[in-house]
Amino acid sequence: MNIGLCGTGRMGAAIAHRLLSVGHTVTVWNRDKAKTKPLAEAGAAVASTPAALAAACDLTITMLLDDAALDAVYSGPDGVLSADLGGKAVMDMSTVLPETEERIGAATQARGAAFVECPVGGTVGPARDGKLFGLVGGEDADVARLRPVLDQLCRRVEHVGPVGSGARLKLAINLPLLVYWQSLGEALALCKPLNLPPERLVDIMADTSGTTNGMKLRAPDIAKALAGQPLGAPAFDVRAARKDLATMVAYARTLGLELPTAQGALGSFTEAAQSGLEGQDAISVPVRWAGKTGARS
C-alpha cells in the first residue's frame, strides 16, 4: 500500500521504519525537513506539504505532538483537508483531546475519506517492531478496511467505539503511569537515609506489589539515572508526558471532574520542564525529585 506519514518525530519515524520494513511504499512529511532525511535514506519519499502527501497516498497517517499541531496539519494552508480525499483513508495516531479527534474525523469524512483514530501504547522500540497497543476509534467498516495495517503496527488492536473513544481510553491508560513516576520520586526520596546503591534500591522496589510494569521495564535506566549516569535517547520525554497530563486534566473538566493526583503530577512535570528537562526521558522526573534536598520550592 502507498502510505503517507505526517510527523516524523521519534514515534512517527519508528512507525515509518516499520511500514517500510513490511513492504509498504512510504511518503513522509515533517515541519522540520531535517527530520525526514534518515527516512529518505531508508527509502521513503518526502512530500513538500501535508496536502501533497495526502494526494499521493492511499492512506495518510498522522502522528503529532498535540491538538494545535494536529489542527495545523489538517486545517492549515496546504493541510491534509485541502487535498482531494475521495475514496482515501486517514488515520490519526496522536494523543489528543477526544473532541479534537471527533472534529477532525468529521471534517475528513466530509471530504470523502474514511477516518480512524488509533492512539497507541508503547514507545519507540515497540513501534519499530510492530508491537504497539492500538486503541482504535471509528466506524466498523473503516476499522476493518485498515485492520491489515493496524495488525502490522500493533501486537494488540482494540476497537473501543466511534471516533473519540480511542482518545478517551488512551488518556485513562496513561494517567496511572505518569502519576506513578511522580510518586516513585517521592518514594525514592524517603529512601535517601538508607544510602543503598541505586541498583539494589531499584531492584527491591521493582519486585514489590506497589510497582508498575513500566517500572519493571525501566528499572535499569532508573538505576543508571539515580547513579548520575547518562541515558540514551528518551523513550518518552518530559514535554510529551506533561502534554498528556494537561490533556487529561482538560478533558476531565469537560466531564465536570477534577483529577487531583493528575493535577499534582502535572505540576511536577511542569516544574521539571521549566528546569531544563523538557527533552529528557520522563524517568528524569522521579530521579530529579529523589535528588531534592529540603522542601519543594
Question: What this model shows, in words?
Answer:
- 45% of the residues are buried.
- The protein is built from 13 helices and 9 strands.
- It folds into 2 domains: 2-162, 3-Layer(aba) Sandwich (Rossmann fold); 168-290, N-(1-d-carboxylethyl)-l-norvaline Dehydrogenase, domain 2 (Orthogonal Bundle).
- The longest helix has 26 residues, at 165-190.
- The model has no long low-confidence stretch (mean pLDDT 95).
- α2 links the parallel β2 and β3.
- The protein is globular.
- Strands 1, 2, 3, 4, 5, 6, 7, 8 and 9 form a 9-stranded mixed β-sheet that branches.
- By secondary structure, the protein is α/β, with parallel strands linked by helices.
- α8 (165-190) crosses α12 (260-277), α8 (165-190) packs parallel to α13 (284-290) and α11 packs antiparallel against α12 (260-277).
Structural class: alpha/beta
SSE order in H/E notation? Answer: EHEHEHEHEHEEHEHEHHHHHH
Query: What's the CATH first level of the largest domain?
Result: Alpha Beta
Shape: globular
Our measurement of the CA-to-CA distance between the termini, rounded to an integer number of angstroms, reads: 54 Å
Beta-strand content estimate: 5-15%
Q: Any idea what the radius of gyration is?
A: 20 Å
In helices, the fraction of residues equals 40-55%
Total number of β-strand segments?
9
Unreliable spans: none
Count of individual helical segments: 13
Q: What's the CATH topology label of the largest domain? A: Rossmann fold
Q: How many separate structural domains?
A: 2
- CATH architecture field of the largest domain: 3-Layer(aba) Sandwich
Please name the fourth-level CATH homologous superfamily of the largest domain: NAD(P)-binding Rossmann-like Domain
Instruction: Give the overall pLDDT as a whole number.
Output: 95
Largest sheet: 9 strands, mixed
